[in-house]
Amino acid sequence: MKIPNSIGWTTFACSLFLMAIGEAPPVQAQTAPNSPAPVATVEPTRSTQTTWLVLRHAEREGDADRLSLAGLERAADLKQLGEVLNVAVIYSTDTERTRGTVELLAQARGIEVQKYAETSTAWIDEIKSQNQGKVVLIVGHSNTAGVIAGQLAETPPFQIAHDEHDSLFVVTTESAAAASQPADPVAPNVGSARKVTNCVVRLKYGRSAAKLPATKSDPLAPTGR
């Protein structure tokens, strides 16, 4: 499987952007001439970058809750991609088609797949807090994967077509919060603000549909597929 070069460039570009705005030289408080008081130094904040890989499950066998041959081959492609990107955490809904999409990757990486059932703001905040600095993969459905990507990136939700199984949303989030420090007489608010910046890009992964074994159509259901 050929991994798109845009993955590396996107992560690299986001990293440079976040480093540029997240790291600043120490801020020193000025004192009057001949003053015996020491110069107060505010250390730069420490930033933590998290990369999220959000996707819909691979192709399914008609209306059955299992992957088709095409889906199994896409799951194998995802395994290779996830190993290269050092995926450390995997979230999946409790369906056979989503679990089957990440099973090979989870086994290869020695990861226990964590189940989720909701995509609320509270859940997004929770997983952001739990996974700072990691590469996290989330597999969902046609009506949830784009929503999750939008929630993570703090953008409107992305739409996924009923026959679209190869979209990969790469979201990079950065949270920087200064540790508690003594009050600075010149700039008492320096380092006290929380800064959050996000990057998101939509890519394609795996073999194209034309090169995968034929499978039955997968029409979009109201409850999501």
Q: What's the rounded overall pLDDT mean? A: 76
> What series of H and E elements makes up the topology?
HEEEHEHEHEHEE
Q: Quickly give the structural class.
A: alpha/beta
Write down the Rg.
Answer: 22 Å
Major sheet characteristics: 6 strands, mixed
Q: What is the total tally of β strands?
A: 8
Poorly predicted runs: 1-10, 12-33, 38-46, 178-184, 186-194, 215-223
SS field, number of helical segments = 5
Shape label: globular
What is the CA-CA span between the terminal residues? 26 Å
Widest beta sheet: strand line-up: 5-4-6-3-7-8
Q: How large a portion of the residues is in β-strands, by DSSP E?
A: 15-25%
Helix content: 25-40%
Could you describe the 3D structure shown?
It is a single chain. The protein has 225 residues and is of the alpha/beta class. The strands form 2 sheets. A 6-stranded mixed sheet has the order 5-4-6-3-7-8, with helices on both faces. α2 runs parallel beside α3. It is globular, with a radius of gyration of 22 Å. The protein starts with a helix and ends in a 21-residue tail after the last strand. 30% of the residues are buried.
